[in-house]
Amino acid sequence: MSKALHQFVQSHPRLFVLTGAGCSTAAGLGDYRDANGQWKRPQPITGQSFINDTHARKRYWARSAIGWPSFAAARPAAAHHALATLQSLGYVSTLVTQNVDELHQQAGHTNVVDLHGVLSTVSCIDCETRLSRNTFQEQLISANPWLADLSAAHAPDGDADLELEQVDRVSVPHCPACSGLLKPDVVFFGENVSKSIVENAMNALANADALLVAGSSLMVFSGFRFCRAAANSGQPIAIVNHGKTRADDIATIKISGDVGTNLQYLVRVLA
After folding, report:
1. Do 1 and 84 belong to one domain?
2. Does 126 lie in the same domain as 149?
3. Is the domain of 201 the same as that of 265?
């Protein structure tokens, strides 16, 4: 089936690439869904809960304090390096990722569109003051030194499977400029992607030869919308993913299996 992917790319050399968690699992970062596209764990916190529910927000930051160091230490895997090479070879016109880990950028990919934002910074929802997540981590641990003594299994997007009986004891640092609420620069579950980001990505898709999906189940509409748009405009769609996706029935070709392995093969035959 990798030969079919090779033929697909040769026939459509200006690719709009959409990536998901399947690119980063080999880097040690978790994903939310199984091979059937079903939730493997409880749904993540919603943006509404983070902003309006003090208890939920404290719980989020306690878990994030444990999960962040491992998340920040992750390095690009085979899929990230392969896609960066495909860009350098001239086959990738645009790459949009649903991931928030910036591993594509670390691999050398340029002009990446971070559809759901990035976890490496936090911003005040009132005055938009921005801090690095590493700086916020220092403040968070300083305010809650007991968190540094805890451990838990790591979960997707810098989360950790930590259950605290006394969540209310967590002290969350405020914005240093206005004492407002600091929020990770990511699109939480239930929030909408910026209209301008979607419009720019859609324009890039319209100017591409085809859509290549790498490592995404497409169960979230923010990613699936690009497949629907491509199908409506008659653009071919290739999907490389371990397991089923929401767009299997409209794909031109579907390659099952490890994303990194398939993309590395593609690079070898195209280089």
Report:
1. yes
2. yes
3. yes
Which range of residues forms the domain containing residue 231? 1-29+75-116+193-271
Mind telling me the catalytic residues?
Answer: 116
Instruction: Quote the CA–CA distance of 127 and 63 in Å, as a whole number.
Output: 26
One domain for residues 241 and 176: no
Query: Which pLDDT score is estimated for 36?
Result: 66
- The pLDDT value recorded for residue 165 is 72
Task: Please tell me the total count of domains within the chain.
Answer: 2
Amino acid at the residue 263:
L
Percentages helix, strand, coil for the chain (3-state, rounded to 5) are 45, 20, 40
**110 and 100 within one domain:** yes
| CB within 8 Å of 196: residues ≥ 6 apart | none
Q: Which residue reads 């990511």 in tokens?
A: 186
Q: What span, in angstroms and rounded, lies between the C-alpha atoms of 97 and 157?
A: 14
pLDDT of residue 163: 74
CA geometry: angle 101, 51, 195, nearest 5 deg:
60
Q: How far apart are CA 38 and CA 138, in angstroms?
A: 35
Picking from 164, 186, 208, the residue at the C-terminal end of a domain is 186
Structure tokens at 114: 């971070």
**76, 25 contact by CB (below 8 A):** no
The enclosing domain of 174 has a CATH number of 3.30.1600
Specify whether 146 is located in the same domain as 52.
yes
Residue-level pLDDT at 11: 95
pLDDT at 29: 87
Which amino acid makes up residue 270?
A: L
- Positions in the chain short of pLDDT 70: 1, 30-42, 152-162
- Contact at 8 Å (CB) between 105 and 181? no
Kindly compute the dihedral angle of the four CA atoms of residues 263, 268, 270, 271, in this order, to the nearest 10 degrees.
130
**Confidence (pLDDT) at 164:** 72
